[in-house]
Specification:
alpha/beta; 434 Repressor (Amino-terminal Domain); Rossmann fold; six-stranded parallel β-sheet; six-stranded mixed β-sheet; 12 helices; 12 strands; about 45% helix; LacI/GalR-like_sensor; DNA-binding transcription factor activity; transcription cis-regulatory region binding; Lambda_DNA-bd_dom_sf; transcription regulation
């Protein structure tokens, strides 16, 4: 297959090569209609930038580092797909590293990617990360960093998050309207942004329906579900509670699937004995037994937006930037796991 170049696109559209080059980079100097024509033609002709040539010309690696808790998490795998969809068409490679909920591994991954001279970092914090000096040091030296999903509160840069409060509020209110009153919450480390936001949504829904908040119904798993024994202890404390919950809202993929497994292991039925709603992007949620009610995040779109923010920082480092925190809507999908049986 013949490889198409910028010169070929310029000739076909009767544009200069510099105009085509800037349009492909998403430059603000090119009007939107010209950008659209160039991007559509490039896509139709299967144009792909030559990253080696670009890196030599611009003194960049043309690579983006991504640090996440784990690829096996459906949310993060979907977010990575979104990142690559933008990065690839802009001539960047994506280098992925997992922190496995460990601060030390996050630190090592950050140092490694910096040594590899990535042009910027996309980061979702580990469950142990309450010290961000390693990121601040690199940012001070000029390395662009964008956070997504699990974001630091007091850190000046772009951030992309889901509306965790609204998603959890809607899920908790759904359980209440189904007739459940003893609703527990199984969640991640208390210092993570997603944990705080989801907990606030849970509490607000209870308060608005005059249901007392029971602290013993709120269980934190400091490794986000990656350590089975930690989740098992939390779930068993709920199952053996003197006033056992009749519903549990879980805040992540591993927490959800492990919770369901343990409930069944103990001879209890879902939702007859304990209903379940998960904050999860499991693609197989509808295949579980029973089919799982879930709050879904727009993971793919979050990955895309975070990458667009980062590439803008990379390619326009001296531009006046007003840093943004973009909050995207979640979506509650109601299935059998949270529908109260009628008698």
């Amino acid at each position: 297959m013949e490889i198409i170049t910028i010169k070929d696109i310029a000739k076909a559209l009767n544009l200069s090569t510099s105009t085509v080059s800037r349009a492909l980079r998403g430059s603000y100097e090119i009007n939107p209609e010209t950008k659209r024509l160039v991007m559509e033609y490039a896509e139709r002709m299967n144009y792909r930038p030559n990253p080696i040539a670009l890196s030599l010309k611009e003194n960049r690696s043309r690579s983006i580092g991504v640090i996440i808790p784990e690829i096996a998490n459906n949310f993060f795998s979907q977010a990575i797909n979104g990142m690559e969809s933008i990065a690839y068409n802009r001539g960047y490679h994506v280098v992925i590293s997992q922190n496995h909920e460990s601060y030390e591994r996050e630190l090592v991954s950050t140092q490694y990617l910096a040594q590899r001279r990535v042009d910027g970092l996309l980061v979702s914090l580990s469950g142990e990360s309450n010290d961000l000096e390693h990121f601040k040091e690199l940012q001070t030296k000029g390395l662009p960093i964008v956070f997504f999903d699990r974001v630091p509160q007091d850190y000046i840069t772009h951030k992309v998050i889901a509306d965790n409060f609204a998603g959890t509020y809607e899920a908790t209110e759904h359980l209440i309207k189904q007739g459940f009153r003893r609703i527990a919450h199984l969640t991640s480390p208390s210092w993570l942004s997603i944990t705080y936001e989801r907990l606030e949504g849970y509490k607000k829904a209870l308060q608005n329906h005059d249901i007392p908040i029971e602290d013993s119904y709120i269980k934190y798993c400091s490794h986000g579900g990656m350590i089975l024994e930690e989740v098992e202890q939390a779930v068993m404390e709920l199952i053996n509670h003197p006033n056992r919950p009749d519903a549990i809202f879980t805040a992540g993929d591993r927490l959800t699937t492990t919770c369901m497994s343990l409930i069944r292991r103990e001879g209890l039925r879902i939702p007859e004995d304990i209903a379940i709603v998960g904050f999860t992007n499991l693609v197989t949620a509808h295949l579980l037994n029973p089919a799982l009610s879930a709050v879904r995040q727009p993971a793919y779109e979050m990955g895309q937006l975070a990458t667009e923010f980062l590439i803008d920082l990379i390619e326009r480092p001296k531009a006046t930037i007003r840093f943004e925190t973009k909050k995207l809507d979640t979506h509650l999908v109601i299935r059998d796991s949270s529908i109260k049986a009628t008698t």
